[in-house]
Amino acid sequence: MPFLTDDGEPLAELGLAQRxxxxxxxxxTAAFTxxxxxxxxxxxxxxxxxxxxxxxxxxxxxxxxxxxxxxSVPTPLWxxxxxxxxxxxxxxxxxxRSREAAALGDDRAALxxxxxxxxxxxxxxxxxxxxxxxxxxxxxxxxxxxxxxxGGVRGWALVVQAVVGAVALxxxxxxxxxxxxxxxxxxxxxxxxxxxxxLAGLVATLTFSLALLGPFVLVQLAALVPxxxxxxxxxxxxxxxxxxxxxxxxxxxxxxQGQP
Length: 260
Description:
- 52% of the residues lie in helices and 6% in strands.
- The chain is mainly α and 260 residues long.
- Strands 1-4-5 form a three-stranded antiparallel β-sheet, covered by helices on one side. A two-stranded antiparallel ribbon has the order 2-3.
- Helix 4 (132-150) packs across helix 7 (200-237) and helix 5 (152-175) packs across helix 7 (200-237).
- The protein is globular and about 65 Å long.
- The protein starts with a strand and ends in a 23-residue tail after the last helix.
């Protein structure tokens, strides 16, 4: 098992402290190491006491105040992919590596590092038993965010094409009930991904996963939004905080506490 403690033992538990107690951010209470089976490289994520020591020594390293939200899964998708579980250790490692990449100050270098880090993320997910499709989807979504953040215009074009393509696939599927010729949109969207060269696989997976999961997200929102509106109404009537109901894991006023 490539996830190890500092003593070289298999990682039996992942020590996390929720800070502050009402916010969806966590700090690592015990360091761990990941040994990449493909390259043999070791990746170490330091514990919070190490970060505090570096801060005391005026070392403003990229992990000096590192915290994580575990797997950054949007709330409407929590019913399908949890923000914690078998994916927790790979997610914490990926958050730490992403923080280091962003601190490089060079988009090209950060993009190169993140592409390798995203592969390591997928490898770690599979080693901990995350199902193949789920692991691939999680890797695809972090990779899309990577391209958007560091890929410049091309990165944004990739994401926009995937979203537009997904909408086109869903719309064509619905319209095909009246006219089957609308299904020609599927091969057109599939062929269009090849304009991105070696990233064509990423665009294809992102496009078709959005098309597949989009309707499920809408169903989730159809149930979630009315409930949140009722919560907001109760808060309003009782002179509470209506805005605080939209993110149930975050206490009002704690958005900027304990976050990098």
